[in-house]
Design brief:
Distance between the termini: 60 Å
Structural class: alpha+beta
Radius of gyration: 23 Å
Largest sheet: 6 strands, mixed
């Protein structure tokens, strides 16, 4: 297939194929939906806002993506010239906030299942508390959190330029097509061969071990069930993909303390989060060896940051840190290992897991990672709404009701105060709210104890908390 409806078609990227891969195994196709809202405490000119949304569509190629397949079932993508579909306005005035959010959750649970259709939806909304803005629903195959924030920011800046003096017109977005062409050129390259050699060597070093959220009970159960007392993998999902999102809020002041620690010691917040999580699992399971899945955004350049699309690759991140190591020394090891992995992050995660399954054959569904982590540093506050002075605004994420993972933690900055929100998406029957509260409580205790006393050993921190 070379064209579709007169438009040139392109193969899927590795990041997109990863989403298609697990979509095939999930009975709920809304598993790929991302739903969010951005509202501002100001009356908006809805006609101007609608024009700015159309302009943002025009400026963002990835928002005009369509998927199509050939007779052999191979999927392709193409980009239409413009979006001229109606942009709806919904006024929730007179409803309760819960009723409004219930409606938006329902929107988030309608999957994009047909071919040749828009893979996103924008609705202009007015919420019961008088805030005005937009609800955005997108499919993960053509957007990730960073491109979603980028699109919302573009709408804000276009609107602000129209309505307020001294707000400049936003700079152009980057080409989505240009970036996917670079990704496609990677296939079969020398860089791919180097990355494959790196990950094969990493996998072959030794077999990881599963650490449970509340101890080694699940692993012991798998060992007993299999009759293998040396089994090192376990199943971390339930027989239902039904999911919810539980959110825990860290206030502005303690968030600043964590960020100040990261700035002082030249490490990213991802390193501190990984250190906190792996130390929690070490405390609960008694293993120095801990693996957690981590998402890598693959947006190092300005063009990658502003091209939209979905660029996330996810790999297990394994650390073996003994209790006699200092907190700071362990953080530096995590930083160095992360930097090394970033250099090879264009590699195909599906190929990674296929090779690991070949080296360490386990029963279907068994894994070494109890959870996945994403930290999203990009915020609207960076260069968006702060231009409008002291206007209050809110963002909200809505559960699509399904996930193929037992537990996925996304950490993001709140737009109101830049504090941190810990968004735990989890299978309801795999992980309970009570377990998440326990994990979050000790995660924070570990991070703050370590940030305040970086020369304490890991063992000392585990005892003190």
């Amino acid at each position: 297939m070379k064209t579709r409806k007169g438009y040139k078609v392109y193969p899927l990227t590795t990041a997109q194929k990863f989403h298609f891969y697990y979509l095939n195994f999930c009975p709920k196709k809304e598993v790929l939906n991302i739903g969010t809202s951005l509202t501002i405490q100001v009356d908006l000119d809805w006609n101007v806002l609608r024009e700015c949304i159309y302009k943002a569509y025009e400026r963002n190629e990835c928002m005009r993506v369509r998927f199509t397949s050939d007779k052999d079932g191979t999927w392709y993508q193409y980009i239409v010239d413009q979006e001229d579909r109606e942009i709806e306005f919904v006024d929730f005035t007179g409803k309760t906030m819960e009723e409004a959010e219930q409606t938006m959750r329902a929107w988030t649970r309608v999957p994009f299942v047909e071919e040749d259709i828009p893979m996103n939806k924008v609705v202009m909304i007015k919420t019961p508390d008088g805030f005005c803005g937009v609800y955005l629903l997108s499919d993960h195959r053509m957007m990730d959190a960073q491109s979603l924030i980028c699109f919302l920011r573009d709408i804000i800046e276009l609107y602000s330029n129209r309505m307020y003096e001294d707000v400049p017109y936003p700079k152009d977005m980057s080409s989505y097509i240009e970036q996917i062409q670079k990704d496609l050129a990677y296939e079969g390259s020398k860089a791919q061969a180097r990355d494959e050699a790196f990950f094969h060597k990493l996998i072959e070093q030794s077999e990881p071990i599963y650490n449970g959220i509340d101890g080694s009970g699940r692993l012991e159960m798998e060992r007993e069930k299999s009759g293998n007392p040396n089994l090192r993998a376990a199943v971390n999902v339930s027989d239902s993909v039904d999911a919810d999102i539980d959110i825990f809020h860290l206030e502005e002041e303690p968030t600043k303390r964590l960020m100040n620690f990261c700035e002082k010691y030249h490490v990213s917040l991802t390193c501190l989060l990984l250190m906190g999580l792996r130390t929690y699992f070490q405390k609960m399971n008694g293993n120095d060896d801990v693996s957690i899945n981590t998402a890598i955004a693959r947006r190092a350049t300005l063009k990658e940051k502003k091209s939209g699309g979905t660029r996330i690759h996810s790999f297990p991140f394994r650390t073996i840190i003994t209790e006699d190591r200092t907190f700071l020394d362990a953080i530096y090891e995590i930083r160095d290992r992360q930097n090394e992995m970033f250099r090879h992050a264009n590699y195909d995660p599906v190929a990674y897991f296929a090779y690991r399954s070949k080296i360490y054959p386990n029963a279907p569904g068994q894994t070494y990672e109890p959870m996945a982590l994403t930290y999203q540093p990009m915020t609207l506050q960076d260069e968006g709404l702060e231009k409008l002075g002291g206007i209050q605004y809110k963002t909200k994420w809505y559960s699509n009701g399904a996930t193929t993972q037992g537990m996925y933690l996304t950490v993001m900055h709140r737009p109101e105060d830049n504090g941190l929100d810990f968004n735990f998406e989890h299978q309801i029957r795999a992980v309970s709210r009570k377990q998440l509260e326990y994990l979050y409580y000790y995660l924070c205790k570990i991070m703050f104890k370590g940030a305040e006393n970086p020369n304490l050993s890991v063992g000392e921190i585990i005892k003190l908390i």
